[in-house]
Amino acid sequence: xxxxxxxxxxxxxxxxxxxxxxxxxxxxxxxxxxxxxxxxxxxxxxxxxxxxxxxxxxxxxxxxxxxxxxxxxxxxxxxxxxxxxxxxxxxxxxxxxxxxxxxxxxxxxxxxxxxxxxxxxxxxxxxxxxxxxxxxxxxxxxx
Length: 143
Ligand code: TYD
Prior knowledge:
Layout: E1 6-7, E2 9-12, E3 21-24, E4 37-41, E5 49-55, E6 60-66, E7 69-74, E8 79-84, E9 89-93, E10 98-103, E11 109-114, E12 123-124, H1 127-136
The site of thymidine-5'-diphosphate has 7 residues, from strand 4 and strand 5.
């Protein structure tokens, strides 16, 4: 199961201690896919649950750029939870994984970089269909 956080290159200026930090995601150094789409989820209250789906082919990098978000990733056998509370790290989530995100603080923001344009046919939104799909398909199956 992939739940390895990527530490992003992050710059601060010691001469400007209150001027914040700058984090970078650079293809191909940090990501093994080309980014075709970026979206972000904001304005959600604490306890919001999102996700509840898997993707057939999509690769994503999840970055919590504000607040705290818990990401549960389930490969059909094990669930691994990761707390994202640091904008200088990213969590890669590949295809064939059921993901659930829980907002642990109001107004946390999740930035997502994705390898493909939006395609509802790439989603599996039913957990029992997900378990069935990963048993009978691989990443190269047509969708
Ligand atoms: P979804 O991926 O289900 O997000 P979450 O699991 O966080 O709720 O997307 C929510 C809705 O937005 C769904 O109707 C699909 C739509 N959507 C797009 O139209 N384009 C996109 O790029 C994304 C990510 C979602």
